[in-house]
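S.,

Sequence below, as promised.
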Amino acid sequence: MAKEFIVETSARHAHVTQETLEILFGAGYQLTLKKELSQPGQFASNEKITVVGTKGETKMSILGPCRKIDQVELSATDARSLGINAPVRESGVLEGSGSCKLVGPAGEVELKEGVIVAKRHIHMTTADAAEMGVENGQIVKVLIDSGKGRKLIFDDTVVRVSDSYALAMHIDTDEANAALCAPDQKGTIIA
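The prediction came back faster than expected:
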């Protein structure tokens, strides 16, 4: 039997630099921990910002720790509702991506690019990759069966391998809703 892994729904969120954080929240500001995430060292913060597009705005959490570049991750539905042209991309591949305005209690930042619909992916260690017979950057198909009549095969899923990761697949809210995923949803690589 193929190895199962947790499938997590990655809701809309932002990653910001320390510089952007200080513009949005004030000089010297630091993110505060709300809860740890499944990926080691990553956390949801208590801080929320407003993301403004050409047709609307929405509030979202900032994930920590601060990064080297600002990035906003939305579902395709979110992007359409906000009027943001957000391409499907791997995290960090931001050239030519969508633009928006970030608004915090102390200031605003205009992002000329940095808004994406995150490409679905599986985080895994080198040991996990060896056990499953896959490698970093490989594109695989993942079967998700919630048992609710919406069994789906997600093609075009990228494998991301690092020993700093924990085994988990990340999909956005549109994808999770399409498969009627449960909070403890499991998936399996089938090709």
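The chain has a mean pLDDT of 97.

Coffee later?
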